[in-house]
Design a protein that fits this description.
By secondary structure, the protein is α+β, with helices and mostly antiparallel strands. The protein contains 32 helices and 23 strands. Helix content is about 50%, strand content about 15%. α2 packs antiparallel against α29. The relative contact order is 0.11.
């Protein structure tokens, strides 16, 4: 009999066995399909979320051939992609107020063009008033298709209609059919439809036809000086060249001579040689994106996914081989030898592995298609299409098939070594665990960890992924011993959990593969979650808040209106009713010297500042001479400590929140210290009452004193104060005794010193009520801010509400998708694996029923058996997942240190933060789900079984 004939018979037997045991076969297929599904969905999403150059041009240009806009800087030179340009006269200053050129003269002859104009505007909402961008462009024109698309309703037509984006409607409480009024012009518009920018789904904006909003606004500003004209952005033009002509590189160069920047579809897709690009000859190059380059994190996750397929499929085939051992024994009685037994088991791997790989690939594509809208909202832009790369998808399916076949290899060897008698009777025999394997596993675990960590410190993705896999294999070798220890901890537990633990320890050949499968699934989830939580903690540390978190500021600090301070008493109650404020209100005054810079030009007003004393203790060592040499010697922790020193915080923390200047001096009482700085100190209160300022950053103090420099300059237009202070500007320097707050208060945003009113008067400084600070019960919602804005507007305007929104969350699209898919694979794998373990233990449950155990005991035992498997796998998977996560963070640390040593004020803090919520959910949720599923699907009645032996 030829080899092919033998394999054909083995495949036929495997196929019939799979059809005979449909339930078990479905579980085996699912074990292979789940990881393949995850990798396929990841591949399709990754490829679809990265638009091609042609797709990005459609988002930028619509269906037009080019985008033209005047840079107002004279002749320019640009790169072909239009993303970079330089004036021919590099010292030329853009002239925004000068006359605009007739840009239509730069268009190719016979072209058609439409303009895009925009400006921010105050508009009414269902709650109050908000500020949003208003675009004037003919949205119904076919040239904007792909750039602006209609979602529902109709395009605006005429002077009284606008379209809105969905985020705008959501934040304002409006909808199609609602009306909104542009406060600057007083015109009311009806919302006729919802539009979207496919490449920026989170945009909040209104769209109107040309001349519908900005023209009436400009006309109103010309007739009423109280109305400010719109702050228009440069006008852009979408140009459609004559059919078949396009906008060529000579057309672009001709437009550049008039100072017009051009992004041409034809030029971007087919750029000219560098010899024809003047700017390229000067060494300028376009930015080369790295979307095609896989990150170290992605390489590591894919490598773990490959291992996961093997570990998930392995126990599936082991269970299948044990359930078919009688059939394999009959094969031996008919003259089959070990080769034929191995061929049958491997044939099962080939058949079920092929079905699982194809099913997983198809399901992955289908799942991505079903959840496409959710994924698009997640990444913030539409997928032009689901990009399916056949070679990649075939590679994923083929690899799933091959790894499934490899996973059947070990069960095939074990099955071939069983004697015919053991196979026919169903007796498994007694085998002692290897004593060498756990020791070898510990050594491999240590080796893999060291290799992964070393790869992290050197930035080698191969070592990171390889070391992580080796470490996980080492932990895998330790599982049988760990499972054997479980039986010893159940002595004092109730019947069902005690039996479950002892059963797991006694049948470790069945338990260990199931634990390994759960461990593999959980390891990937923990690795991704740990990396994500660590990155989030890093972003939170690097973020410099503009205000103290949990506070709300009502401010007029930048207003140039003389009577704005008189409006504060009227505005405060209305704002307090609109926002969720709690506790005390802290009022403050701004302080300045000379003429008020809010009202008068910079060269006609005074200035006020605290001088930093000379000396090493008062200077930030990360700035100035020797900073880079110092940074080269610092570790990340040492650099973090220096970054949070008062001297460096003086440079790092924001200025100008409470004052229009950079002095960070506020006139207030102890209430501001309590509400805003969270500094409640009786000694500080006494100091303020006595006229002594409270200094929050000790960098400015020397021997308990600060030096205050004031330039008393009064402009000619400031007639009242100029009459009292004639002559040349006067500069004064005063030393003030201060109460120095503890060092931690140096991080208070926007305030360095709180000065009593009487001290400001004694120094000849001017003060004026400027606003109030409140403690917020929660961050203000869009509706609350819009109500507050309306209340301020009703009182006369000139004030605004500001809050601390926290760090901007720059989500890594692929890491978010990896997190979702890892969680899906974990739950699926844990459920299927424990189901296989329950199926393999069916004989034990039948024995339990035979000796009189009630159905409830059967269910509870089955549930606890699966719970033991899942819990052990989750705990070990958590440990295994930490290895790649730590190694990946070491890669980030290496890059952060490199950046810090080039720019010493850049943070190198790279924490490793465990995602305790995710770990807790896995430790509690996965075992509980597995146990409940096992209890639900365990039959109450005893199934008829063939007598063994």
């Amino acid at each position: 009999m030829s080899v092919f004939t033998g394999w054909r018979a083995a495949l036929r037997i495997a196929r019939r066995d799979a059809l005979r045991a449909k339930g078990r076969s479905a579980l085996v297929v699912a074990m292979i399909a789940v990881p393949v599904l995850g990798v396929t969905a990841l591949d399709v999403t990754f490829r679809s979320s990265n638009p091609t150059t042609a797709e990005q041009l459609t988002a930028d240009l619509g269906s037009a051939d080019a985008l033209f806009w005047d840079q107002r800087s004279g002749p320019i030179e640009q790169l072909p992609d239009g993303d970079m340009y330089m004036p021919v006269d590099e010292e030329a200053v853009p002239d925004e107020s000068g006359p605009a050129i007739d840009i239509s003269t730069t268009f190719p002859e016979g072209s058609r063009a439409i303009d895009i104009r925009s400006a921010p505007a105050d508009v009414t909402t269902a709650y109050g008033i908000t500020n949003t961008d208003v675009f004037e462009v003919r949205t119904s024109d076919k040239m904007v298709r792909g750039m602006i698309d209609l979602v529902r309703g109709s395009y605006p037509r005429g002077a009284g209609e606008v379209a809105a984006t969905e985020p705008f409607l959501k934040s304002t409480g409006l909808d199609v059919g609602s009306t909104t009024t542009v406060r600057n012009s007083g015109r009311t518009y009806r919302i006729t439809g919802v539009v979207e920018k496919p490449d920026a789904l989170k945009t909040e904006a209104l769209y109107a036809d040309p001349g519908a909003v900005l023209a009436p606004w400009k006309a109103g500003a010309e007739h009423d000086k109280r109305v400010l004209p719109p702050n228009e952005r440069p006008v852009q033009w979408l140009v459609e060249a004559p059919e078949g002509a396009g906008v060529t590189w000579p057309d672009v160069l001709r437009a550049n001579k008039s100072g017009v920047l051009v992004k041409s579809r034809q030029v971007v897709l087919d750029p000219p040689p560098d010899s024809e690009v003047p700017l390229a000859g000067k060494g300028y190059q376009s930015y080369a994106g790295s979307s095609e380059k896989l990150s170290v994190a992605l390489v590591t996750v894919v490598a773990l996914a490959i291992l996961e397929i093997v570990l998930l499929a392995g126990p599936a085939f082991a269970v299948g081989a044990r359930r078919s051992r009688r059939q394999l024994g009959l094969l031996g009685t008919c003259g089959g030898d070990r080769r034929h037994v191995r061929a049958v088991v491997l044939g099962g791997g080939l058949v079920l592995g092929g079905v699982g790989a194809v099913t997983g690939a198809v399901a992955g594509i289908g799942l991505t298609a079903v959840f496409r809208p959710m994924l698009e909202e997640l990444v913030g832009h539409r997928f032009v299409s689901l990009e399916l790369r056949p070679l990649e998808l075939l590679g994923i399916a083929a690899f799933g098939l091959v790894t499934g076949l490899l996973a059947a290899f070990a069960p095939a060897i074990v099955a071939s070594r069983q004697s015919v008698l053991e196979s026919l009777t169903g007796r498994r025999g007694v085998r002692r665990s290897s004593r060498v394997l756990p020791i070898l596993g510990c050594c491999v675990l240590a080796l893999g960890t060291v290799v992964a960590v070393y790869g992290g410190t050197t930035g080698d993705s191969g070592l990171v992924s390889g070391g992580s896999i080796v470490a996980e294999l080492g932990l895998l070798a330790c599982i049988p011993v760990l499972v054997g220890l479980l039986g010893r901890i159940g002595r004092r537990l109730p019947l069902s959990p005690r039996m479950a633990l002892r059963d797991a320890a006694r049948n470790r050949g069945r338990t260990a593969p199931a634990v390994a499968a759960v461990m593999a699934a959980v390891a990937g989830s923990v690795a991704v979650a740990t990396y994500m939580s660590s990155t989030k903690a890093e972003n939170e540390f690097d973020y410099v808040p503009s205000m103290t978190p949990g506070t709300i500021l009502l401010s007029s600090s930048y207003s140039s209106e003389a009577d704005v301070a008189e409006r504060l008493p009227r505005v405060r109650p209305a704002v307090e009713r609109s926002l969720a404020v709690t506790g005390k209100r802290a009022d403050y005054r701004r302080v300045w010297a000379g003429s008020d810079c809010n009202v008068y030009e910079e060269d006609s007003c005074g200035s006020l500042e605290m001088l930093v004393p000379a000396g090493k203790d008062h200077a930030c060592p990360l700035t100035g001479k020797g900073a880079k040499e110092l940074a080269a010697r610092l570790s990340a922790d040492e650099h973090k400590k220096l970054m949070r020193s008062p001297a460096c915080l003086a440079r790092l923390m924001p200025s100008g929140i409470f004052n229009s200047d950079m002095s960070n001096i506020v006139v207030a009482d102890e209430t501001l210290l309590d509400v805003y700085a969270k500094f409640a100190d009786p000694a500080a209160t006494e100091a303020l009452a006595a006229g002594t300022p409270v200094l929050l950053n000790k960098t400015y103090a020397k021997n308990g004193e600060v030096t205050l420099k004031a330039v008393h300059r009064y402009g000619e237009e400031d007639k009242k104060n100029r009459a009292q202070h004639p002559g040349k500007p006067r500069t004064t320097t005063a030393k003030l005794k201060v109460y120095v707050a503890p060092e931690k208060y140096a991080a208070t945003p926007g305030v360095s010193m709180v000065m009593p009113q009487k001290t400001a008067e004694r120094l000849g400084l001017h003060t004026s009520p400027a606003g109030s600070v409140y403690t917020a019960a929660h961050p203000p919602t869009d509706a609350e801010l819009q109500r507050a804005r309306a209340a301020i507007d009703q009182a006369g305007g000139g004030l605004w509400v500001q809050d601390e929104s926290g760090p901007y969350e720059t989500e890594d699209t692929m890491m978010v998708i990896l997190t979702l898919l890892a969680g899906l694979v974990t739950l699926g794998a844990a459920s299927i694996t424990t189901g296989l373990a329950k199926a393999d233990a069916e004989a034990d449950l039948n024995t339990l029923s035979a000796v009189g155990a009630p159905p409830g005991v059967r269910r509870r035992l089955s549930g606890f058996q699966c719970m033991v498997v899942a819990l052990t796998g989750v705990v070990l998977g958590t440990l295994a997942g930490l290895v790649p996560a730590v190694a990946l963070r070491l890669v980030d640390l290496r890059e952060a240190l490199k950046t810090m040593r080039a720019e010493p004020m850049e943070s190198a803090y790279t924490p490793i933060v465990l995602p305790w919520s995710t770990v807790g959910l896995l430790v509690v949720g996965v075992p509980l789900l597995a146990g409940l599923l096992a209890m639900a699907f365990t039959r109450s009645r005893l199934a008829l079984a063939r007598r063994a032996g």
